[in-house]
């Protein structure tokens, strides 16, 4: 099975490096032809993943049609750009295995990546790759375990075999809703945890946010038909733990700056920002209680301060766990 990674950000580049390390050819597509030329000449993506050498079997390309000739396409584009990206060239996706590597909820439609793939490319096989991982760890060959989800069990087995390496271990799932929502919502809770630490609320507050945040993730995911055991796995609890405890996490680091200064500049793709807004609206529409997500959305919109959000959560009525 031939493979291409569409999107040469840090994570897409890391995946290409990992999958090509044993000599298997991998095409790495970037929109910017100048970036592609630089990667081909220097064998490094200096802008997005400095210090990591691209194996000889990674072919940087700027021709999307050429990259899309591969059987399995890993979509490593920002969540809020995915819909337009897919709709722009629908003919390229027919019969392909499309593996979404982004996490979040589309602001315009309320759909996750699998829903966007199904809408824009009905003849493709949608799949998701999610779990606790940082690009630099994958690129440096450190042991990482992820979940690969697809409703097509036969396709999932084939992709699991092709995309697993000696140090990148993929587990298989057919629970698309659970894998998708676990990966999306943990980013919102990571922002909350960063805010708590940045505001000096302490480690105990972070643990409480992680625990109650996990309850919110379960609440929404199970309302959407997800399986509880999926949320207890790599793409749920595992990803939540990593993202809420490390400054390597863009979402946690953003929340940290927000808690420290009351405002924060978005320096990189921080998927939890849009996801918090989309899920807060979704929860209100469906009558789901998601107080942490709602509070984070309010902070991000500027309607409450970090301190007011914390007070609002602490003064909620007492209830059984």
Descriptive account of the structure:
The chain is an alpha/beta fold. It has 15 helices and 8 strands. It has an 8-stranded mixed β-sheet with strand order 3-2-1-4-5-6-7-8, sandwiched between helices.
Estimate what percentage of residues fall within beta strands.
5-15%
Overall strand count? 8
| Amount of helix | 40-55%
Individual helix count = 15
H-E string? EHEHEHEHEHEHEHEHHHHHHHH
- How far apart are the first and last residues' alpha carbons, in Å? 48 Å
Choose one word for the global shape.
Answer: globular
Structural class: alpha/beta
Main sheet properties: 8 strands, mixed
Parts with pLDDT < 50 across at least 5 consecutive residues: none
Cα-atom Rg, whole angstroms? Answer: 19 Å
Strands of the biggest beta sheet: in what spatial order? 3-2-1-4-5-6-7-8
Mean pLDDT: 96
Domain Glycerol-3-phosphate dehydrogenase NAD-dependent N-terminal: 3-155
Protein name: Glycerol-3-phosphate dehydrogenase [NAD(P)+]
Binding site for sn-glycerol 3-phosphate: 103, 131, 133, 186, 239, 249-251
Enzyme class: oxidoreductase
Give me some keywords for this one.
321 residues; alpha/beta; eight-stranded mixed beta sheet; 15 helices; 8 strands; 51% helix
Topology (SSEs and partners):
Layout: E1 3-6, H1 10-20, E2 26-29, H2 33-42, E3 58-61, H3 64-67, E4 72-75, H4 79-88, E5 97-100, H5 113-120, E6 125-130, H6 135-139, E7 144-149, H7 153-163, E8 168-173, H8 176-198, H9 203-223, H10 228-231, H11 234-243, H12 250-261, H13 271-286, H14 291-301, H15 306-314
Parallel strand pairs: 1-2, 1-4, 2-3, 4-5, 5-6, 7-8
Antiparallel strand pairs: 6-7
């Amino acid at each position: 099975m031939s493979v291409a990674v569409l999107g040469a950000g840090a994570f897409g580049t890391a995946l290409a490096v990992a999958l090509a390390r044993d000599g298997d050819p991998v095409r790495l597509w970037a929109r910017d032809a100048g970036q592609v030329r630089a990667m081909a000449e220097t064998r490094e993506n200096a802008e997005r993943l400095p210090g990591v050498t691209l194996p000889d079997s990674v072919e940087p390309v700027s021709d999307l049609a050429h990259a899309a000739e591969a059987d399995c396409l890993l979509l490593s584009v920002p969540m809020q750009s995915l819909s337009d990206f897919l709709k722009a060239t629908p003919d390229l996706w027919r019969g392909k295995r499309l593996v979404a590597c982004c996490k979040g909820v589309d602001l315009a439609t309320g759909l996750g990546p699998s829903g966007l793939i199904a809408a824009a490319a009905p003849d493709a096989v949608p799949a998701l790759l999610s779990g606790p991982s940082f690009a630099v760890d994958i690129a440096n060959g450190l042991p990482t375990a992820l979940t690969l989800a697809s409703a097509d069990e036969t396709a999932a087995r084939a992709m699991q075999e092709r995309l697993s390496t000696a140090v990148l271990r993929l587990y298989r799932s057919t629970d698309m809703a659970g894998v998708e929502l676990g990966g999306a919502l943990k980013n919102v809770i990571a922002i909350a945890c960063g805010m708590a630490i940045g505001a000096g609320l302490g480690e105990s507050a972070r643990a409480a946010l992680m625990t109650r945040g996990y309850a919110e993730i379960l609440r929404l995911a199970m309302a959407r038909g997800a399986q509880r055991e999926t949320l207890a796995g790599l793409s749920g609890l595992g990803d939540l733990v990593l993202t809420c405890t490390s400054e390597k996490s863009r979402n946690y680091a953003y929340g940290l700056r927000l808690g420290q200064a009351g405002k924060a500049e978005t320096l990189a793709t921080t998927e939890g920002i849009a996801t918090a807004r989309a899920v807060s609206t979704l929860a209100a529409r469906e009558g789901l209680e998601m107080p942490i997500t709602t509070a984070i959305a309010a902070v991000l919109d500027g309607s409450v301060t970090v301190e007011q959000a914390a007070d609002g959560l602490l003064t909620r009525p007492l209830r059984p766990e």
